[in-house]
Amino acid sequence: MKKINDEAPKCDCNVIHQDVVDQVKEQLPDWGSLYALSELFKSFADQTRLKILFALSTQEMCVCDLAALLDMTQSAVSHQLRVLRNVRLVKYHKQGKIVYYSLDDDHVNAIFKQGLEHVAHR
């Protein structure tokens, strides 16, 4: 059986392209931006949250409807919505006693749809 090499290819030399390093270093986002981005991507790392994002990319929904869709308690759905709200992936508004959730903006929909396209592309 052929052994699979899991290592990433690396250079066989020690040449540093300083101009490239300097150019990228100038464009590197600050620590706070990178931290916020890592928190955003962590939020996508849960299938329940992905299902919620998919549902909300289709239609604004209340917590009760999301709970029924996902066969979860309202409390469990609310917990996941809080995570998504904290990274500004979803927003909400109240109509009387009902709280409706939707995607925060078009960027969220674009990120979600591009992710789906990426995994479908082989």
TrEMBL record:
<dbReference type="Pfam" id="PF01022">
    <property type="entry name" value="HTH_5"/>
</dbReference>
<dbReference type="InterPro" id="IPR011991">
    <property type="entry name" value="ArsR-like_HTH"/>
</dbReference>
<dbReference type="InterPro" id="IPR001845">
    <property type="entry name" value="HTH_ArsR_DNA-bd_dom"/>
</dbReference>
<keyword id="KW-0805">Transcription regulation</keyword>
<keyword id="KW-0105">Cadmium resistance</keyword>
<dbReference type="InterPro" id="IPR051011">
    <property type="entry name" value="Metal_resp_trans_reg"/>
</dbReference>
<keyword id="KW-0804">Transcription</keyword>
<dbReference type="InterPro" id="IPR036388">
    <property type="entry name" value="WH-like_DNA-bd_sf"/>
</dbReference>
<dbReference type="GO" id="GO:0046686">
    <property type="term" value="P:response to cadmium ion"/>
</dbReference>
<protein>
    <submittedName>
        <fullName>Helix-turn-helix transcriptional regulator</fullName>
    </submittedName>
</protein>
<dbReference type="InterPro" id="IPR036390">
    <property type="entry name" value="WH_DNA-bd_sf"/>
</dbReference>
<keyword id="KW-0238">DNA-binding</keyword>
<dbReference type="GO" id="GO:0003700">
    <property type="term" value="F:DNA-binding transcription factor activity"/>
</dbReference>
<dbReference type="GO" id="GO:0003677">
    <property type="term" value="F:DNA binding"/>
</dbReference>
<dbReference type="InterPro" id="IPR018334">
    <property type="entry name" value="ArsR_HTH"/>
</dbReference>
<feature type="domain" description="HTH arsR-type">
    <location>
        <begin position="29"/>
        <end position="122"/>
    </location>
</feature>
